[in-house]
Structures are given as structure tokens and as C-alpha cells.
Amino acid sequence: MAQFHLTPDSVQEVLETHDEDVIVTNHQGIIVKATRISGQSYGIRAEELIGKSVYDLEKEGIFSPAITPLVLKEKKKVVRIQETKSGSKILITGMPFFNYKGDVDYVISYSYDVSELLVIQDYMKEIEYEMSKVREEVQYLRNQMFAENDFIMRSKSTQEAFMRAHRIATLDVSVILYGEAGTGKSTIAKEIHKESTRGNGPFIELDCATIPESLLLKELVGERADNGSPVPGLLGIAEGGTLFLKNIDRMALHLQTKLAKIVKEERFYPIGSVSSRTLNVRFVSSTDMDLKEAVIHKTFLSELYYLLNIVPIHIDPLRERIEDVSALISHFLKMFSLKYKSDKMVTEQLFAQLLQLEWRGNIQELRHVIERMVVQSEGKVIDVKDLPFEYRKPEDEFPEFDFEGETLPDILEQVEMQVINRAKKRYRTTTEMAKILGISQPSVVRKLKKYTQAEFDS
After folding, report:
1. Cβ-count burial 193-213 (b if 16+ within 10 Å, e if not)
2. pTM for the structure as a whole
3. pLDDT, tens digit, for every residue of 239-259?
4. pLDDT tens digits for 47-63?
5. How distant, in Å, are the alpha carbons of 1, 17, 242, 451 from that of 172?
6. Alpha helices in 348-407 (DSSP H)
7. Which residue, 47, 146, 168, 242, has fewest beta-carbon neighbours within 10 Å?
């Protein structure tokens, strides 16, 4: 499997475009890169910092505490007040950058003199946004993945789904992607193909929900025309590559039987032909329903299920991935601001409301709403009044947040906690809560345990 390994030079290409005090250390605490103004707070030139250990600098009293060891220990964003040798106080933020094993490869830190805090309050959001761009650009430089679709992976469940897909990509086995419409199944299917041994072959997509039943078989196997010339089907066109069967559950049962025979025998006959062709494709399928339940209710063929469901990958709906919602808001805001040559930002109140909406249409729905607001809002700042009418709710349904001093994970946790507690007051059982919130009953139990320690009837 081709991989792109992050190097200090790759990081420098990103950092050279930023004028902030940013330092990059590796997992051993060695400073590998720094921006040109780094070190000014410590009375050291930036180039003199390169190669130095933050542990040694801390022992020498250059600063205290060192932020890198704290980030390596906690494996999350850390903010501290750091005192320098001259006695000045620095506000320093360290952020981890993980490898595929979940270990911290690098720590990116940025700092400001505390005396500048009054100014920082006005543009902290802009700096945070710039740092998110640095991380996203470094992510691109590291693995060159999802260049076309900018797949967002901030939540643990999304990362786990992607890592599962990444691990099995080179294994020539059939995969079924489970998840609601708009959760990113097509993007993951393309990534599995790209990272597979068939990556140089064709990637062909067929939506079983849109092709008429009478035409689907011919679409798959092709036919022999009246003049005797062959008309290839998708199984032939996809030879040496991947065939992505979207909404596989929508395929009629008698066609499922034919497809199961093709997959099992690894041969197929074009319609009207007496000669068979060898099957040489990898199947990746998707569905928004539980196929195991469909097999039990005899709406999906058990034989085809076991042939295609070698590796199942589940993608949670967006409403269960609040970290992804937050990242997607920023991503789409940036994307459409560039597309329409505007410079838009959202208010804290609107951001809080967007986090709490259900997004039943998942990523595409959120993308649609952000684009509408970017296009229709009059000023630079997008407010609650710019939210499409059908998405607005009474103001008392949305809590206010004190964004000063709060990290994004803290804010997201507040939102989730208030939603869970509100549902807990209204509904008697976790089953009822799960139905209303649109998440699984086990998820409700876990969240109740996390936020309330309450025991509910199931």
C-alpha cells in the first residue's frame, strides 16, 4: 500500500506561509521546525531552536513548563501559561498530530505574550482557524488521501471506520459499507479502490435504487447485439477494478440470486451469448439498512449476504458525530467563501445551533445549508437570522455558551450533555430516547452513564 510519510521539510512548507510563533517538535521532544519569529519570547533566534530538546530547555530555565511532554502524555490539545527566563508569561497551546497507530508523531505549538490577551480575544477564532488549516494541510502532505472529497475525520467512530477501510484495502475481499445516505460511503468506497491492488483499474459505480429492475441484469452482464457484436456490461467494464453497488438492498430478489451465482462461480454470461466471461472485479457495496435483519425477514438473499459481507464497515450518522459536524462547518464555510469570493464567518450563537440540529440528510444537508447561508447572507458575519427558516428553533431551546477560555471539545461536550439531560427529563426509557435522538439505544446508555450516571429501563 502506498503511503506518504510526513517529514520535517513537508511541515516547513506549510509553516513558511504563516507569520505566527509556531514550533513543531517530534515525539522525542526535539524541535524540528519553527517559524521565523519563534524564539523571540525566549531571547533565542529561531534557527538556534532547531535540534534542541524541550526537556533540556526546560531544565536550563528557558521556559517552564514545556508543552510537548504534556501533549504527549494527555494526547490532546493542551493550553498552559508558560513562564520564560526573563519572567514574562506566555500563553502556549500545544496540539498533537497522530500517526495511523494512534501515537503522537508531532506536537504543533503556538504562543502569545499574555499582555496581548485583549487583542487575542478579537482574533483568536481567526488564529484557531489558521491552525486548523495548518493541521489539514499537514494531513494532506502526510497521506495524500481524499484529495477530491476532503473527507472529514474528527470523531473517533469516523476514524475507526476509515482505519478499518484502510487496513483491508489491499485485501481483495468484498466489503459492505453500512450507513445512512450522505454519511460518506461513496468516498470510503473510492478510497478502498484507490489503496487496493486494483487502484490503477476502473472504479465503476451502480446505484441499484435508480436502475429499473428490467434493465439491471443487462446493465451488469451486458449483451450480444443483433448484429453479433458484444455490448459490455458493468462487470466487463470494471474488469481489473472495483464495482461499487450502491443501495444493494434495493436489488430485486431474483436478481440477487443471479448475482450470487456470478460471484460464487466467478463467471457470467452476457445476455444472448453462449460464451461466458471470467469475473475479475472486486465488489464494494453499500446499504442504509441492517442486511442481517433483511435476511431474517427474507427480503435479502442469505447466500449473497455471506458472499458480499466479508468485511462490514459501519459509518455513523452525522448527528452522532458532533466533532465531525464542527469540523465540517468550518470546512464548508471556507470552501464556499472561496468559491463565491467572500470572507464569511459565523457567530457563536449560530455555531451552537448548527451543532445541535439533527442533520437527517447528513453531510450533504449540512453542505447545502452552509452554501445557502454563504450566498444569501448580506454581511461578512452570518448570524442566526441567516439560518434557513425551516431550521430555526425557539431561542430558549438553544443554550448560550461562554466561548472565552473554552476549548472546542469542552463546548461540544456541553452541547451533548444538555441534549441528553433534556431527553432524560422528557422520556422514560432509553429506547424512547434513542428513537427521538436518532441514535442507538446502547449509545444512549453510554452517554447517560457519562453525563448523569443514571439508570434507565431499557
Report:
1. bbbbebbebebbbbebeebee
2. 0.55
3. 999 999 999 999 999 999 999
4. 888 899 999 999 998 88
5. 13, 41, 10, 43
6. 348-356, 362-376
7. 47
